[in-house]
Amino acid sequence: MDSTGSELPTSAWKTEEELIEALQRQEDDAYEYLVRAYSGRMLVVAKRFLGQDQDAQDAVQDAFLSAFKAIVNFEGNSKLSTWLHRIVVNACLMKLRTKKRKPEKPVEDLLPHFSTDGHRDRAEPSWAVTYDTAVQSRETRELVRQQIEELPESYRTVLLLRDIEQLSTEETAARLDMSISAVKTRLHRARQALKTLLDPHMNSGY
Amino acid sequence: MKLTCKELYEFMGDYLEGNLPDDVMCVMKTHLSRCPCCEHYLENYRTALRLGVSCCKEYAEDEVPASVPEPLIQAILEARKKSD
Fold it and tell me: How far is A5 from A198, CA to CA, in rounded Å?
């Protein structure tokens, strides 16, 4: 992605390129603009990985400090927002690695069950609410995000990296120090669990 | 070759990504055409996946707060000065 010429809303710098040059000249007001303009989006990403607590704010702070160090070498090959997004995801993964893990809720309760002959133990209805209807509702979008947050952390992390951040299975496995088959299994379980969490809403309609 | 519902569920992720050998894809399609329970589950699973992606990516702006806590902004700017 070429950042040249990207217009910046209400800032002293007409383009992203000008802002980057000001950052590379270590201008204080450029740094303040960067933090004010991008920290909201970064906090959203961090909360997805780390939950609604201080860890998310700490990850955003760590991400900005990494970005401040790296800005000197930033060549504008991607948009600033894309670059900062990548940095905050990395900061979140670092936090997850060092964070003291809370015991997770077992995911098994959210998975389908089968009888001994391999058939489902109950009928599966087709959801009453379609994708198109659901995605148009702000309330449903908020619910979907809340249910992703409800997933056990180790499943949520894989789902976020693979489905939302769109990392490959191989890259996700490398980042999480897991085998490729473990990533595939965990992703499938995470999607199944999300589906189960959405069942009551999507089956009942509005 | 036949698949039970339980076995079919395990292949769903790979099925949606087209990562299965042709013969397994074929067996899955046959099973899905005859088993409404599995067909519905696959459709709901796919919708859940699409909703997750859309709500966190295309509609990500929904979530961006109007303002970030000022203490966080100040902490970041202070930390920059200290690290100089």
Answer: 42
- Would you say the pTM of this structure is higher than 0.90? no
**Beta carbons of A79 and A3 less than 8 angstroms apart:** yes
The predicted-structure confidence for B40-74, as pLDDT tens digits, reads as follows: 999 999 999 999 999 998 888 787 877 889 999 99
Please check whether residue A149 is in contact with residue A44, taking contact to mean a CB–CB distance below 8 angstroms.
no
* Cα–Cα distance list, A5 to A15, A20, A41, A196 (Å): 5, 12, 21, 45
In this structure, which amino acid lies at residue B14? Answer: D
Residue of A nearest to B6 (CA): A118
> ipTM score of the complex?
0.90
- What are A7's strand-pairing partners? A15
Q: CA B56, CA A165: separation in Å to the nearest integer?
A: 9
**Among B12, B51, B60, beta carbon nearest to A134:** B51
Cβ contact B73–A35 (<8 Å): yes
Region of A205 on the Ramachandran plot (φ > 0 left; ψ -120 to 50 alpha; else beta): left
